[in-house]
Specification:
Blueprint lengths: L1 H35 L7 H9 L20 E4 L2 E3 L2 H10 L7 E5 L5 H7 L4 E6 L2 H13 L5 E5 L12 E6 L8 H5 L1 E11 L5 E8 L5 E9 L10
Parallel strand pairs: 3-4, 3-6, 4-5, 6-7
Antiparallel strand pairs: 1-2, 7-8, 8-9
The structure holds S-adenosyl-L-homocysteine.
Length: 232
């Protein structure tokens, strides 16, 4: 009697866990099909990464059911996990390829870092709020990512020891582009960064051309949390 109850609970648990896994997988597929592709995300590697990264593991339990809606969600410390479309759009804008080394400013939940880590070789990510940075490191390590490197600090200074980078993604909005980030970009490299005060921000694509020229192109109006400064 006891043994058969144990057996049936095991079977039930098995089906319950595999169906909840499938539910999220289907929700990710719907997000890709209904939101990302219609809004112009074409890069195959980016779409594949958006299909695989488990965003529900990077948000608090009470908002997990909204994890695959195309919107930002609160993650604590007054910060948010970026909207999936914006993560896909910024990732596509740097034209990610295997072999690349990318710097991200604003680790937050770790979602953008995970999407990048699915495609490029190395992701360096900096977060100014220690509690968030440590939590993201724990989550991403638990998810098995071995090509993400973490730092707590002010991303204004970039990460000199590992520069130059093939690309830089900034996920908090400064009023001006931090000059060291441009310095730490490789020749031929690209940076996407939201710039401006909260009511009037634009996502910009900065390119360091082979002839040394820096070009800047406005991509879309956005709303990111402000880029905060530390004294160190
Ligand atoms: N990339 C994150 C988005 C998080 S929101 C994600 O995918 O979830 C932006 C993050 O930038 C916040 O966590 C905020 O604390 C952080 N941030 C703001 N100013 C910063 C700075 N100067 N250096 C590093 N991180 C910063």
């Amino acid at each position: 009697m006891k043994a058969s109850m144990f057996f049936w609970s095991f079977i039930l648990l098995f089906f319950w866990s595999s169906s909840s896994q499938d539910r999220f997988q289907q929700q990710r597929e719907n997000l890709v099909k209904n939101q990302l592709i219609p809004r112009g995300i074409k890069n195959k590697a980016v779409l594949e990464a958006m299909r695989s990264v488990e965003r529900h593991l990077m948000v608090p339990k009470d908002v997990q059911k909204h994890a695959y809606e195309d919107r930002p969600l609160p993650i604590g410390s007054g910060q948010t996990i970026s909207q999936p479309f914006i993560v896909a759009f910024m990732t596509q804008a740097i034209q990610p390829e295997p072999g690349m080394k990318v710097l991200e400013i604003g680790t937050g939940s770790g979602y953008q870092a995970a999407v990048l880590a699915e495609i490029v070789d190395e992701v360096y990510t900096i977060e100014t709020v220690e509690a968030l940075g440590k939590k993201a490191e724990k989550t991403l390590t638990g998810m098995g990512y071995k090509n993400i490197f973490y730092k707590i600090g002010d991303g204004y200074h970039g990460w000199e020891e590992h520069a130059p980078f093939d690309a830089i993604i900034v996920t908090a909005a400064p009023e001006e582009i931090p000059p060291r980030l441009i310095e730490q970009l490789k020749t031929g490299g690209k940076m996407v960064i939201p710039v401006g005060p909260s009511a009037n921000q634009h996502l910009k694509l900065i390119e360091k051309k082979k002839n040394g020229k820096i070009t800047s192109k406005e991509l879309l109006p956005v709303r990111f949390v402000p880029f905060t400064r530390r004294d160190n």
